[in-house]
Amino acid sequence: MNLPTIRSILSIWLASCLGYSLASDSTGSESVQELVLVRGGTYVMGDVFEDDRKFMIDEKPLHEVELDDFYIARHETTIAEFRAFVQDTAYRTRKEKHLEAKLKKDETPYDTYTWKESGFPQTETHPVVWVAWEDAAAYCNWLSKKEGYPVAYDLHTYQVVDANGNPTDDILKVKGYRLPTEAEWEYAARERGKKVLYGNGKNVAKEGEIACLFCDDSLSQEERENLPTGTTPVGTITPNALGLYDMSGNAWEWCLDQGQEYKADRQVNPYYPGDFHMIRGGTYCSEPFSCNVFGRINFWGGANCSASGFRIARTAR
Q1: Please, which residues have CB within 8 angstroms of residue 16's CB and are 6 or more apart in sequence?
Q2: CATH code for the part of the protein at 11-315
Q3: H/E element, 82
């Protein structure tokens, strides 16, 4: 038995032990992006450490969530992957359209950064940033068509649609590539709902283990401003037990649904449509605690910044 075969067997065995498996497209060939099949289950969603620090939306009350199996990308969507979409469709992102509108009015934009030029050094293997939720939805639809799946979004209304193109709030009826729901994202970041603080399966953030901004409290403001900041190539920092990279740090990741105040009631495959959307996971320019798996930020339509990226997902049945 040769080494590649041994590695393949070990990979399948490890995946089955940890509750995930490698995914392929409907033809049995490799997907454009490598996906992990996360086995569903029930977990307690919210800040199980009951820490008083929170972001824009409360992370309590704790509540039980049941999820079906779903696929999620092993890593954040890269510049190369997004570039393939743009080259194939001539797509213009929300930020690019904003800059074009400013120039037509002879107005000076606040900045000129886009996914093509982020303002810091990046290569094709870095996560794409300056991406709005709507841009991520357009990418997902392109990938669905490319791989023979029904699209997940109506790009006129930005509603989620079922396999027949009808609007739906039932996530199991959405068959194309999409963004993960907030509940799916947290479940995957927490290694199928474990009590962990960070997306690498650990409760303590250490430099070199999370792509975020580590700095000593004794540094002056000037020293902090001169700290190097920028994304890290995907797949270069140790993943969590499900084989998922950068669930904490690197780029923020858009979720499918709008942020809602948590309720104590038990939920099954929750999804909340709306004009705002959750973004999770912290960034390369966040301090470590801001990259924890519970932190919730609800951004308005069209929002984007130097750290807004995404990771794709898909319903498994």
Answers
A1: none
A2: 3.90.1580.10
A3: helix 79-89
